[in-house]
Design a protein that fits this description.
By secondary structure, the chain is mainly α. Helices cover about 75% and strands about 5% of the residues. The longest helix is centred in the N-terminal third of the chain and has 43 residues.
C-alpha cells in the first residue's frame, strides 16, 4: 500500500473519530446544561425543604462540569442547544433570567455568596407561600402551624449557614420572619445560638 493511500485512510478515520468525539462532547455538555436548567427551576419553585437541599447539592455536584464546559469556545452554542431542548420539553415554561445568569457564569455556583443568596431567595419564596396559606386559613391553630413551620425552617437554614461568611444572610432570613410576627435573635458569642 502506498504511503499516500495509507495517509488518506488515517486522515479519514482520524476525522471520523474527531467528529464522534466532538459530538459526544457536545451531547454530554448539553445534557449537563439541561439538568442544570431543570434543577434551577426546582430551586426557584419548590417550597419543600428536602427538595431544595437535594437539588442545591446536585447543582453543586455538576458545577465542575458546567465550569469546565464554559471555558470552551463551543459553550454558547451548547447553551443554545440545551435551551432549545428545554423549551421543547417544557413548552409552558420560559427560561428565566435567573437560569440564564447562573449558566452564563457557572463558577459562581461554588461560592459561599451564591449559597447564601440561594438560601435567602428560597426562604423568601417559602415564606411567601406560607403567608398566602395563612391568609386563606380560617382557624388560628392552622395559622400558627404555618408560622411554626417558617420558624423551624429558618432555624434549619441558619444552622446550615454557620460560618462567618454567611452572617450577612442571617439578617435577611430573620427579616423574612417578621411578617409572621416572629422576632428571632442570634447570639453569635455562643457559636450561633438561636433565640426565639
Amino acid at each position: 500500500m502506498s504511503p499516500f493511500i495509507l495517509a488518506l485512510i488515517i486522515t479519514v478515520f482520524g476525522l471520523a473519530g474527531w467528529g464522534s468525539y466532538t459530538f459526544n462532547l457536545q451531547k454530554r455538555n448539553c445534557g449537563v446544561i439541561f439538568q442544570a436548567l431543570e434543577t434551577i427551576h426546582l430551586l426557584d419553585t419548590t417550597v419543600k425543604r428536602d427538595i431544595f437541599f437535594s437539588r442545591f447539592s446536585f447543582l453543586r455536584k455538576i458545577a465542575p462540569s458546567l465550569i469546565d464546559g464554559s471555558q470552551k469556545a463551543s459553550y454558547p452554542k451548547w447553551l443554545e442547544i440545551a435551551f432549545n431542548e428545554y423549551k421543547n420539553k417544557y413548552y409552558d415554561r420560559d427560561i428565566t433570567e435567573h437560569q440564564k445568569q447562573i449558566l452564563t457564569y457557572p463558577e459562581q455556583i461554588l461560592t459561599s455568596e451564591f449559597r447564601g443568596q440561594q438560601y435567602v431567595r428560597w426562604f423568601k419564596h417559602f415564606c411567601d407561600t406560607k403567608e398566602n396559606e395563612i391568609q386563606a386559613l380560617k382557624t388560628e391553630s392552622a395559622k400558627q402551624r404555618r408560622r411554626d413551620q417558617a420558624l423551624e425552617c429558618a432555624k434549619y437554614l441558619l444552622g446550615d449557614l454557620m460560618s462567618k461568611e454567611y452572617y450577612p444572610y442571617h439578617s435577611q432570613i430573620t427579616k423574612e420572619l417578621m411578617r409572621f410576627d416572629i422576632n428571632l435573635n442570634i447570639d453569635y458569642s455562643k457559636r450561633l445560638d438561636i433565640i426565639s
